[in-house]
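JOB MANIFEST
job_type = single_chain_structure
chain_count = 1
residues = 138
[input]
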Amino acid sequence: MRILGLDLGEKTIGVAVSDPMGWTAQGLEVIRRTSLQQDLARLRYLVQAYDVEKFVLGLPRRTDGSYGPEVEKIYSFAAELEREFALPVEYWDERFSTAAAQRVLIEGDVSRAKRRKVIDKVAAAVILQAYLDCRRSN
C-alpha cells in the first residue's frame, strides 16, 4: 500500500510517496498551486501512477502544540481530497518538518537556490517518514 504525503502551503504542495511496503518515504515533486481543480488533477495523476491508497497531510501546529488558523485550510483541503478520491486522509504534526528538511539539504551541500526549489517535497518526505516510522513502531 502506497501513501502520498502532502505538505500543503499557500503557493505550493510538497509531495512525497511511500514505497509499497510502507517503510520509506521519498520526495516526488512540488506542485505549484494555481487552482483547486488543477491541484486535484495533478494529484489524481499521482494517485493513479503510484496506486495510492491513503493521504497523510502535514498539520501545522504551533511550538506549544496548539493549532493555528492555517489548520482550517488543511481540513478544507482534506475534505476535497476525500470527496474527490474516496481515500482516507490522516494528519501528522508537521512542526519542525521544514527545519529538518533544511538541515538535510544543507548537510547534503545543496545550494541555496536549489534548496528553495525542493524544500517542500523534502518537507513532505520528512512528514511522511515520521508517520511511517510511528506506524511501524506501534
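[summary]
The two ends are 17 Å apart (CA to CA).
The mean pLDDT is 87.
exit_status = 0
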